Known about the structure:
About 80% of the residues lie in helices and about 0% in strands. It contains 4 helices and no strands. Helix 1 (about 1-25) runs antiparallel to helix 2 (about 35-55). It is elongated, with a radius of gyration of 15 Å. The protein starts with a helix and ends with a helix.
Amino acid sequence: MEKIFVRLCSWLGFILLLLAVSSDFIGVSLLSSPFITFYLISVIGLIVACMGWVLLRFNEVDSITKIVGKLGLFGNLIVVILFFPPLFHFWGTFIFGP
């Protein structure tokens, strides 16, 4: 039963990363802001992927599950750090101009 939960957390973190990126391209918005939807899905994906990563250390699973779990964890972590609102406005101003 525990291995199923480990697989579920690993795959769900990766699926939420893909959902966050695709929701931004499609333009799905929550409270009339696509950024809130994108960032909220990424934060939830990071939490789930962290749970999966911690559980992966203590359980034996397939190698594809380990790879997908790490992609989900690090992908969501990068999105959450890069698109944290104060940092996003800081580097977004330098890239896209004032």
